[in-house]
Amino acid sequence: MTTNGEASAARDTGDGAGGKTADETAGGTRPDGAADTGAITVADVSQEHRYEARVGDDLAGYAAYLRTPQLIAFVHTEVDDAYGGRGIGSALARSALDEARAQGLRVAAVCPFISGWIDRHPEYQDLLYEPTSSASD
């Protein structure tokens, strides 16, 4: 699997599956070589503290998080190499951030992929957590 950071960001620099939503077809070939006609589905698997992206029954990637009642911190994102370049990372980011907005949560983008994705999509920057404390070392 490709981990967060430069490798993932380099693969998925678009606005999400070529403008497709998380429910649209991913297309391509599955890791077992069969034709992939499944849609990308993203779900919050709260017991695992992560959003999971699936193509058909296959786990294609995930975005791990820590959560409080007011904040969700995205700490790591991975996309399976077999699904690289298909908008899986963007589908994860968009779905997770849309859900955070709907729940009134602030977002701490610790993960470099999620942080970079938000940088490229200014409509999500209002979700970013900004500390209000003026305390320092």
Q: Which tags fit this structure?
A:
137 residues, alpha+beta, Aminopeptidase, 5-stranded mixed β-sheet, 3 helices, 22% helix, elongated, disordered N terminus
Structure report:
The chain is built from 3 helices and 5 strands. It has 137 residues and is α+β, with helices and mostly antiparallel strands. The protein has a single domain, classed as Gcn5-related N-acetyltransferase (GNAT) (Aminopeptidase, 3-Layer(aba) Sandwich). The protein is elongated. The protein starts with 5 loop residues before the first helix and ends in a 17-residue tail after the last helix.
Care to give the gist of this entry?
By secondary structure, the protein is an alpha+beta fold.
CATH homologous superfamily title:
Gcn5-related N-acetyltransferase (GNAT)
Q: Major beta sheet, specifics?
A: 5 strands, mixed
Which sequence of SSEs, written as H and E, runs from N to C?
A: HEEEEHEH
Beta strands, count: 5
User: Could you list the spans in which at least 5 consecutive residues all have pLDDT below 50?
Assistant: 2-30, 32-37
What is the CA-based Rg, rounded?
15 Å
The fold-level CATH name is Aminopeptidase
Regarding quaternary structure, how should these chains be classified? single chain
Sheet/helix structural class: alpha+beta
* Amino-to-carboxy terminus distance: 38 Å
Task: Quickly count the helices.
Answer: 3
Give the overall shape: elongated
Strand order of the largest sheet: 1-2-3-4-5
- How helical, in percent, are the residues? 10-25%
Number of domains: 1
CATH class: Alpha Beta
How much strand content do the residues show? 25-35%
